Amino acid sequence: MNTVIQKTTIPDYLDKERKSLERTEYVNGEELKMTGASYIHNCIFVNLLSAIKNALKSEKFKVLSNDMKVWIPSKNAFFYPDILVIQIPPQFHDESNDIVTNPICIFEVLSDSTRNFDKGEKFDSYRSITGFQEYYLVEQNKKLVSQYFINSNGNWELIEIEKPESTISLKSLGIQLGLSEIYDGIEF
Question: Which has the closest alpha carbon to 171: 152, 153, 144, 145?
């Protein structure tokens, strides 16, 4: 779980964050220390990023990594998703161009320490972003991807993908990924 470091204002948080080598997230005045990622987390991250980038041929989208922050104004929060996809042109929080506001699709690789936060508060926050359509939670302890997407009725729906031969259809991006691509080279 992310640990609260201190209470701060948004301008102070952004000033400190932009000068620091350490990354922190921000929720409603609280600066949250981020935990480090495991070897398997990193392997899954690279597989996933590569698979999305290779499948995404459309120039309408841009794939970004975990160094890009997302601003969620309705929740007064800044998060670093593992992988996010935005529609072009990017929409930025300010002139620094280091915080986007228009993700369409986000991926989080789950860890024991962040699982509840990623499934709960983060997902609740992401859902409040206008134009946000899909959220993926990727397990690192077993082959399982939870796909949340907005269905034709405007409600969020969940599909869990766990069969090794399964394909995930990323509806908002018009691409498909194989579960085997995401977990390529991963031994459990």
Answer: 152
Tokens of 98: 């280091």
* DSSP at 18: H
pLDDT tens across 134-182, in order?
999 999 999 999 999 999 999 999 999 999 899 999 999 999 999 999 9
Q: pLDDT tens digit string along 63-83?
A: 999 999 999 999 999 999 999
Annotate 88-152 with three-state secondary structure.
Answer: CCCCECCCCCCEECCEEEEEEECCCCCHHHHHHHHHHHHHCCCCCCEEEEECCCCCCEEEEEECC
Q: Name, in order, each residue with C-beta under 8 angstroms of 178's C-beta and a sequence gap of 6 or more.
A: 51, 165, 166, 167, 168
Which amino acid is present at 176?
A: Q
Domains and CATH numbers, the chain: 37-182 (3.90.1570.10)
Question: Among candidates 40, 78, 80, which has minimal Cα distance to 64?
Answer: 80
CA distance readout (Å), 22 to 35, 60, 68, 85, 113? 10, 32, 13, 23, 18
The angle at the Cα of 117, spanning 116 to 123, to the nearest 5 degrees, equals 105
Q: Which two tokens stand for residue 11?
A: 């301008």
